[in-house]
Structures are given as structure tokens and as C-alpha cells.
Amino acid sequence: MWSHHNRWQFWIDRGGTFTDIVALRPDGTTLTEKLLSENSQLYRDAGVEGVRRILGLKPGSPLPDDAIEVVKMGTTVGTNALLERRGEPTLLVITRGFGDCLQIGYQNRPDIFALQIKRPDMLYCRVIEVTGRVSASGEELTPLDPDRLCRDLQSAFDAGIRSAAVVLMHAWINPCHELQIKRAAEAIGFTRISLSHQVSPLMKIVSRGDTTVVDAYLSPVLRHYVDQFTAELSGSTQSAPRVMFMQSNGGLTDARLFQGKDCILSGPAGGIVGAVAISKQAGFDKIITFDMGGTSTDVAHFAGEFERSFDTEV
């Protein structure tokens, strides 16, 4: 029989090719396991199967009640979905006149003398421009046209789009129109609606919009994986272990709060945090990390303290 005093902890790195599991036994010793991330003939989820193998259970068998205290995971599920363009078809809802705002961007030119500019493909597949407008001080200048909004949303829904990114001018100071659009989209049946004032409450519409589109594009893929993982981990038990995921900022969050905008650097962030911890134990405070996976390779430097990056390009 398992008790609350002899529970395991599991730390999982779920990559595109391999999944690595480190287990902390109740007696303080550790075990490791490595599996292919995708092997549908043998198991549904590599992380859960790795937990079973470490606990000595048969494939497909339920996990014992109260056996596990916590599972902490870093994953490249969102990273790989972005790199391979396997996200959810996404609708961009934006203020009238700004339909190409995110495509134009800030006009940054890394290679200023390039004669042929190769622009990245947009993550959204359709755009709706809405008539409502709010001033920079938060005053409503023009109300939304609800009839036209519903027609446009219904048209996108009928085309098979279920995820929407809502990015309006000055929504960070007055989100009334974004909230109105969310209610209309929910009534029609959209299953994922990312609002810019909630996802990234910044003044600049381009950076706010890019983050919101990424959130709408990746969150359905991420949520499907997280729900599948937690459901199989808990099985039919009433005392499911706590599940936490590594975010892009290097911190852990509860599985229920893990979103698309926070997942892009989940795996790489875990590698950096771990490398820094090990290097400090070895007496080094200036290191370069090299994390090579099957799908992507991540390189970072650490010079004594973590640095925050406000602009990230994948």
C-alpha cells in the first residue's frame, strides 16, 4: 500500500524525438528512463509510460492511488508545432484599417542591403476588420457594429476556423470591445478566443498582436496534449498528482494555467535553468549551453545572472 509519506516525484523532458524521465524515490535516490516520444503501437503517452516503467507496472495499467506527489514537465510540443506549422487554423480580429498591421510589423531589417526580403508566413489564415474604435485614453470613439461582426465571425466559423485572436487598438487600456467580440464568438461556437488585453497587455499593437496570435494558434494543440497527459496520469483515481509545466520564463505553472504563449521556450528554458544549477555546483558562473534535440537545437549564454529578453524570434 502507498501512503502520503512515501510518494514519488517525477521530472519529465518531453522532446520531439525522445522523452526523458528522472524519478525521485521516497528514499531520496533517483532513477531515469528514456523513451521515444511517439510510439503509438506501445503506448499513448511517453511520459506516463516512463512513469509506469519506473514504478514497475505493466503497460497500460493504472497508476497506484497516492503513489505520486508531483510531476514537473518541460515540453517542446508547442515549439515543434510552431516550427512545423501544425497549430490551429486561426482567425485574426483587428481594428478596421489595420488588417495588414502584423504583416508589416516594425519594418526591422536584419540585413539592410538585402534585395530580396523573405518575410515569415503569418500564423493566422483569415482576417476580420471591425469598426469599433477606442482612443488612447480609453474613451469609446466608435461603437462596434454587432450585426456585421456576427456575420463575419459566422463566415469564418463556417469555413472551419475555431480559434480566434482578437487584437484591437488601445484594448490594453479599455478592453470593452474585445470582451464584446469574445461574447459574440463564444455564442457562435469558437472554442479558443485569445484577447490581446489578457494575453499581453502592452501598448504596442504589433508585439501585443504577435503574442496573441501565437497564443490562439498554439493553445488548442497544447491544451489537447496537457489534457491527454493529465487524464492518463490520473486515470480513474480520485487523488491525481499535481502536474506542473515549465514556462518560457523558466518558472513552473499549474497544468490548468499553461497557455500557448507560455510554451514556446518551455523545453529550452528547462535546459538552461538546469545547466546553470549544475554549473554553479561545479564552480562556474559563465557558461554557454548547447541543447541539441531531434527537432531543434537551443544555444544560450549565462554570465552570472539570468537576463530577460523582451523580443524572441522562433
List keywords for this structure.
four-stranded parallel beta sheet; 24% strand; 314 residues
Largest sheet: 6 strands, mixed
Percent of sequence in beta strands: 15-25%
| Alpha-beta content class | alpha/beta
User: So what's the overall shape?
Assistant: globular
The side-by-side strand order for the widest beta sheet comes to 3-2-1-4-11-12
| Low-pLDDT ranges | none
Distance between the termini: 47 Å
Radius of gyration: 22 Å
Average the pLDDT over all residues and give the rounded result. Answer: 90
Give the proportion of residues in helices: 25-40%
Q: Give the number of DSSP strands.
A: 14
Q: What is the H-and-E element order?
A: EEEHEHEHEEEHEHEHHEEHEE
Please report the number of helical segments.
8
What does this structure look like?
By secondary structure, the chain is an alpha/beta fold. Helices cover 31% and strands 24% of the residues. It is built from eight helices and 14 strands. The strands form four sheets. The chain has a six-stranded mixed sheet. Strands 6-5-9-10 form a four-stranded parallel sheet, with helices on both faces. 35% of the residues are buried. The mean pLDDT is 90.
SSE map:
Blueprint: E1 8-14, E2 18-24, E3 30-36, H1 46-55, E4 68-75, H2 77-83, E5 90-95, H3 101-104, E6 124-130, E7 133-134, E8 140-142, H4 146-158, E9 163-167, H5 176-188, E10 192-195, H6 196-199, H7 205-234, E11 242-246, E12 252-254, H8 266-281, E13 287-292, E14 297-302
Parallel strand pairs: 1-4, 4-11, 5-6, 5-9, 9-10
Antiparallel strand pairs: 1-2, 2-3, 7-8, 11-12, 13-14
Helix pairs in contact: 2-7, 4-5
